[in-house]
Amino acid sequence: MAESAEIILDGKSITLPVIEGTEHEKAFDIGKLRDQTGYVTYDPGYKNTGATKSAITFLDGEEGILRYRGYPIEQLAEKSTFLEVAYLLIYGSLPTQAEFDAFSYEVTQHSLVHEDIRKILDGFPSSAHPMGILSSIVCSLTAFYPKSIAPELSKEELNLNIVRLIAKLPTIAAWSYKNSVGHPYVYPRNELDYTSNFLYMMFSYPTEQYQQNPVVVSALNKLLILHADHEQNCSTSTVRLVGSANASLYGSVSAGINALWGPLHGGANQEVIEMLEAIEADGGDTSKFIAKAKDKNDSFRLMGFGHRVYKNFDPRAKIIKKAADEVLQALGKQDSPLLKIAQELEQAALTDQYFIDRKLYPNVDFYSGIIYKALGIPTEMFTVMFALGRLPGWIAQWKELRENKEPIGRPRQIYTGELERDYVGMENR
Ligand code: SDX
């Protein structure tokens, strides 16, 4: 007999069917709860709430498992490329050579952006944070490609919108950096692969061509793969919620970029480096900062630690930590004081009862900034790197929601405000 749950309310019994996924996760289906009982559920932060069914990414927070379309990220990080993982997430299977070549060719052909985007970029002050620029320019793509706004798109039109976004985000990201340092924009080169092209646009100058370093390209590829999707995290849920209103892909992703910017989410990678630099500037006493993180009267948190789902090591953090050692070794930066402070901090936290009791482990953001910094990427661009990596996941999740014709997202609430009262004229207040 199918599993179910019974709720008894005012002597009446309500049965909630149980649904089960392919990895045997289970949920009570409360789709008819309010109609049958007048009650809604209450779950701030959706800690216990499944918003959708999805076939894209599986993660197990207790076991520290993360798979994209069934493939373990450990294998993808080792054997795949970011563009191939993007194809896998968006279209559901690893591409054949012909499929990958066609996809890669299309992405290359669309890496240029409209010249008028330079005018928008030039309108930003050099002090503008690149994440604000990124979300603005991505949303402006609706102006350059107005057909992308249509709620009903043919498969070809949708794929063109997807290719355009995948192709142009690195160019927009690199140009937002160049804008912030007042340097000339560098155009993409068709002979370069996706990751190399981004590095080229970031670090080349009219006076000097960037020399690709295979260690750097490989490390960045791995980082982008590890950030590519993560089921229903805050920014992906934002993309889905905006997309559920039939808003355009570009508008939905622009919203997701803003959610990712939050320091509790993707913005944490910038916060981690700034925290490590503050500890270094303060003399490197990690115990002082561990104490601050434990002090309820201190708003300081150990950035890069803790996770809503992983109550064990974030599997991505394990891979990134190993990559950090390799990259710094290869670049002759193995004596990085920030790496040493991070390792000390990690060891101190992992043996401290406060962190053990709360199952707080390093997450994806704890070591990624150390690699970005070693690659020469400026701190303010770290969350932009996260967005570059997460883009295929946002696109895949938005596409799945629209293909499944999911209803517009509209949570309920429990009202705690004033009871009905009459208007009082200004003279009587
Ligand atoms: C990402 O969801 C995703 O999948 C996100 C992400 C992705 O790929 O999309 O994995 C990317 O966002 C990673 C997380 C990056 N953020 C940070 O590193 C910021 C620091 N971490 C936290 O603020 C926190 O751990 C969160 C936001 C990540 C998770 O917060 P929760 O699940 O809401 O947990 P909580 O804030 O309720 O904390 C539970 C307890 C509290 O203590 P008590 O009230 O029980 O005494 O743990 C404490 C918190 O004070 N706590 C921390 C802490 N994180 C949680 N204390 C010190 N330092 C921390 N980092």
UniProtKB/TrEMBL annotation:
Keywords per UniProt: Acyltransferase, Transferase, Tricarboxylic acid cycle
CDD domains assigned to the protein according to its UniProt record, in alphabetical order: EcCS_like
UniProt keyword annotation of Protein biosynthesis present: no
Record Pfam families: Citrate_synt (PF00285)
Active site per UniProt: H307, D365
Pathway per the UniProt entry: Carbohydrate metabolism; tricarboxylic acid cycle; isocitrate from oxaloacetate: step 1/2
UniProt KW Acyltransferase keyword: yes
Catalytic activity: oxaloacetate + acetyl-CoA + H2O = citrate + CoA + H(+)
GO biological process, one term: tricarboxylic acid cycle
Matching InterPro entries: Citrate_synth-like_lrg_a-sub (IPR016142), Citrate_synth-like_sm_a-sub (IPR016143), Citrate_synthase (IPR002020), Citrate_synthase_AS (IPR019810), Citrate_synthase_bac-typ (IPR024176), Citrate_synthase_sf (IPR036969), Citrate_synthase_typ-I (IPR010953)
GO molecular function: citrate synthase activity
Gene Ontology cellular component terms for the protein in this record: cytoplasm
NCBIfam families xrefs: cit_synth_I, PRK05614.1
Family that this chain belongs to: Belongs to the citrate synthase family.
Protein name per the record: Citrate synthase
Native source species: Hymenobacter telluris
Higher taxonomy: Bacteria, Pseudomonadati, Bacteroidota, Cytophagia, Cytophagales
